[in-house]
Write a structure and sequence with these properties.
Blueprint: H1 2-23, H2 29-43, H3 48-51
């Protein structure tokens, strides 16, 4: 359970940073969506169905 919680936190941090990069126009819409999908696969958050 601890690892799942840690992955959740890592995922949320990655999503926060990714969103900021998108808002600052450092990523296109297409890049943003592709990376979001990769983040779910990488971090395997417990609530993955909710995030995508």
């Amino acid at each position: 359970m601890m690892e799942g919680g840690a992955n959740e936190v890592r995922y949320k941090i990655a999503e926060f940073l990714l969103k900021r990069m998108h808002e600052d126009k450092l990523l296109t819409e297409e890049e943003w969506e592709k990376i979001r999908v990769l983040n779910v696969k990488t971090f395997s958050p417990e609530l993955a169905k909710v995030y995508l």
